[in-house]
Amino acid sequence: MPTVSVKRNALFKALGRTYTDEEFDELCFEFGLELDEITSEKEIISKEQGNLKAQGASDVVLYKIDVPANRYDLLCLEGLVRGLQVFKERKRALVAIGTHDLDTLSGPFTYTAKRPSDIKFKPLNKTKEYTACELMNMYKTDNHLKHYLHIIENKPLYPVIYDSNGVVLSMPPIINGNHSKITVNTKNVFVECTGTDFTKAKIVLDIIVTMFSEYCENQFTVEATEVVFPNGKSNTFPELAYRKEMVRADLINKKVGIRETPENLAKLLTRMCLKSEVIGDGNQIEVEVPPTRADIIHACDIVEDAAIAYGYNNIQMALPKTYTIANQFPLNKLTELLRHDLAAAGFTEALTFALCSQEDIADKLGVDISATNAVHISNPKTAEFQVARTTLLPGLLKTIAANRKMPLPLKLFEISDIVIKDSSKDVGARNYRHLCAVYYNKNPGFEIIHGLLDRIMQLLDVPPGEEKGGYVIKASEGPAFFPGRCAEIFARGQSIGKLGVLHPDVITKFELTMPCSSLEINIEPFL
What we know:
The chain is of the alpha+beta class and 527 residues long. Helices cover 27% and strands 26% of the residues. The chain contains 15 helices and 25 strands. The strands form eight sheets. A seven-stranded mixed beta sheet has the order 17-20-21-25-24-23-22. It has a four-stranded antiparallel beta sheet with strand order 5-8-9-10, with no helix packed on it. Strands 1-3-2 form a three-stranded antiparallel beta sheet. Strand 6 and strand 7 (130-131) form a beta hairpin.
């Protein structure tokens, strides 16, 4: 779900009262939100770039609030405040948005596409004109804009908006022009909204203007614009359409598990910005859906809002009418049994991140990233979390590096999932449950790791030898292992993993100084 950052003082001022952090956390929970983090700009920069870069940054407290993906109306301070106020009964990568000083422009406006070399203008907060090609190169180092360049940079034509005098308003979705920049003297604001999804563009425009209109001289008043499409058809935007939905009170009571009168249910829905009243036979509730509530698509969405307003904590728990017996997944049961026995063998369990850097699973292990078949994160927030891990080994080696001062030997293990691309799956990838163990000491301790493998096979009731579904180890090579000190493990006729002494280059890249042996196998074949 998306996260919106708001200044705590500005939020409390708009709400008309202050809360303790615990009280506001509780209010968010009641409203169906989550207070994810309490931080500041200085603290964020310090974590990401170090204390030196954070000097001079703001200490103003920020609330990071997780908002449901379908509540577009809560993704700004004004929408969040209005939603919370109505709830407390005090008062009623698809779209690009540009805001401009209308008095500096001359209509009508033209939205077209041109070759990058033919587009030239002063971008926002710049004093020099650049071509579109120069802008794309310049913004490749911009921490904010570089994430959006891929949307258009390989296209033969770039989108651009001109006024009647040929002045560039913006080159969506990258940057606005400096000519129409909003200043403290701006009186009339022109809002343009472009996107690849027409429906979402209309939704975003409706929400933007409804929130913006709060600050207009004539409050909550906007001027519509006629948009003429290439086929000659025209529409007026924003639409700001209200619609009516009908829902039965007994349906809400049944689905939520409560017993409320239709009148009370109508009041609950009104608290959620859904103006409601009881009509007809007294069991029908007419709900008015405003343009800011594009998330209301079906009756079940109205039922959900009624449950939020009622309060999940206020719904009485009841025994289900069906009788079922829960059972542990076989893979998880096997994992739990192995965890206890590996701990009994003297190894300490570690729990490492499922995401890691490309270096961890490729360069540091002597493998090319393309050969790992790893699942990549499309827009990673940090270099430490770029891909889903394809092996458990890097996580354990980093854990040892962070605990080098502990008494030797260090014996760690982990039983967790790794992720591999798989085009046959509907999500394009699948998980495998792996067991990995590492021995770190002044000597490699290969016999310790080999002995652990024998113990694991004994526990799994897999005898040594190739006959009768047994297991064997065969000499092998691997870029992560010392030459001549690596073996591949075969069990029940298939390869399940490798064990051996790690290569000195691998040890060094993980900032370790002593020999290390490791074992990693797939435990799913033993189910």
